[in-house]
Structure formats: C-alpha cells, structure tokens
C-alpha cells in the first residue's frame, strides 16, 4: 500500500533582536508546527553564542549567511525582529540567492537612537530581583530582557549577554539603510506594532509603498515585540504570507520531489 506523500515544510530562519536570543521565537515555532519549520539561532554575543571582538554589520550578515549555507536547503524564508530585521534585509540585498522571502518585524530603515544600558545590572540573587533592578532603570516591562537571563550554578541570576557588547551592537546598527531595504526583490511581509515607539506608521507605510512586492500588516495592540504582545495574530499573519508564496513541495515514496 502506497503511503501518501509528505510535504516538505517551508523553512523559516528567525533572527532575534538586540538583547534577545533564538528562544524568543519558541511560541511562533510552536504555533507554526505542521505549517513551517522554524530555526532560530543565537546571534553573536547573544544567548549561548560566543562573545566576539567585533559586532559589525558585516559580522552579523556573514554569520547568518554561514548558518543558511550550512543548512544546505536552498533559499529560506528569513524572518528578523528589530536588529535581526536589519540583518535580514541587508542579507537579502547582498545574497538574494539565499532568501526566498522576507518577514521583517518592527524595524525601519533609518536607525538613529540607542538605549543606554551602560550601568544596567548584570546579576541578582533571584529572577524577581533582576526584574526589579531593570524596572528601577526605567524598563517598565522587563519580560523580553529576562528571556536572556538564567541562573548560574550558585543560583545567581545573570544575563547571557554583556551590556557593554550590547552598546556596541546598537551603535553598529545606527545608519540609513534605505538602499538595502530597496535592493532586494523577493516577497516581503513588514510587521508593525501599532504602539511601537521604534517604527512609525509613516515610515512603515513608506517602506511598503516604495519596495515592490511588500505587504504591511499592523498589530494595533502590540508594541515593539509583536511576538510577545500578539503571538496568535503574528502566527496567523505569517501563515497567510506563507500561503501566498509558491506551491508546496511534496516528497514522493521514492524520495523525489515534485511541485503541485
């Protein structure tokens, strides 16, 4: 008896933002299970990835290029949040052969400001104490930052990144990246949080208008971290975008592939 062919699910490579880690996309990966495969690496200086001497634009792009090429699965759907979004559309501009489509979460093309974290706390006896220390520094909701904190063998909670490195990462992201955004031609989904302080409605509209093949979706109740603020709506928007791409690929019983 012949088995029904199984689909080769679309591959989404997700790049997190500054202060983040790949695990911030765990909920999205779960919501897309059976619809797409999501791989979310820790980028240099973040999560469990190694700290490095430099954090240039070229460094981040080269790392992502190596990651995608090592997968050896052809062009991927490249998703990026904030810093990861810049990395994603710059990679697409320089290596269009590696990117089937772009999904950009709440980042624009002109980056002019950084969050000064030079004297932020590095550790605390408990997770709650670390959260309180961040709140005292003016971070009203430290949830995103705490996703990159973990207890050490002594039980002390520490961040998995260096605040000094994060300042360098932010400064390296400053610039006018409009040419990079406008260079690639693959399908793109631009996601904006309606309450985001980092991507204005005007800039998002301009990005979608001036770049061909770009769809803008706004999440009214989300701020900068759409994947945390409106996870179900985010997954629905991504699923709809995936449905609009090319026909699915199926694996036959003999291991061959064919398009429907």
From TrEMBL:
| Single annotated GO MF | hydrolase activity
What range(s) does the AB hydrolase-1 domain occupy? 12-237
**Which keywords label this protein?**
Hydrolase
For this protein's source organism, the top of the classification is:
Bacteria, Bacillati, Actinomycetota, Actinomycetes, Pseudonocardiales
Which residue positions does the secretion signal occupy?
Answer: none
Kindly indicate whether the keyword Hydrolase belongs to this entry: yes
Put simply, this protein is called: Alpha/beta hydrolase
Q: One Pfam family this chain carries? A: Abhydrolase_6
* PANTHER family named in the record: PROTEIN ABHD11
């Amino acid at each position: 008896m012949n088995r029904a062919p199984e689909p080769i699910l679309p591959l989404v490579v997700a790049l997190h933002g500054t202060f983040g880690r790949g695990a911030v996309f765990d909920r999205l990966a779960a919501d897309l299970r059976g619809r797409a495969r999501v791989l979310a690496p820790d980028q240099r200086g973040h999560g469990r990835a190694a700290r490095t001497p430099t954090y240039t634009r070229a460094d981040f792009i080269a790392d992502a290029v190596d990651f995608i090429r090592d997968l050896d699965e052809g062009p991927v759907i490249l998703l990026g949040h904030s810093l990861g979004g810049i990395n994603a559309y710059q990679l697409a501009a320089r290596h269009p052969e590696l990117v089937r489509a772009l999904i950009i979460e709440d980042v624009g093309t002109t980056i002019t400001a950084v969050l000064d974290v030079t004297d932020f706390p590095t550790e605390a006896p408990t997770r709650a104490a670390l959260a309180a220390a961040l709140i005292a520094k003016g971070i009203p909701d430290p949830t995103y930052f705490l996703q990159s904190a973990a207890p050490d063998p002594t039980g002390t909670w520490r961040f998995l990144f260096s605040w000094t490195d994060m300042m360098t990462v932010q400064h390296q992201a400053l610039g006018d990246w409009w040419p990079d955004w406008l260079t690639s031609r693959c399908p793109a989904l631009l996601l904006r949080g309606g309450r985001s302080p980092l991507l204005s409605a005007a800039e998002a509209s301009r990005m979608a208008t001036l770049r061909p093949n770009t769809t803008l979706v706004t999440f009214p109740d989300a701020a900068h971290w759409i994947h945390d603020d409106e996870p179900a709506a985010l997954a629905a928007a991504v699923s709809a975008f995936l449905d609009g791409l090319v026909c699915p690929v199926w694996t036959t019983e003999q291991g061959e592939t064919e398009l429907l």
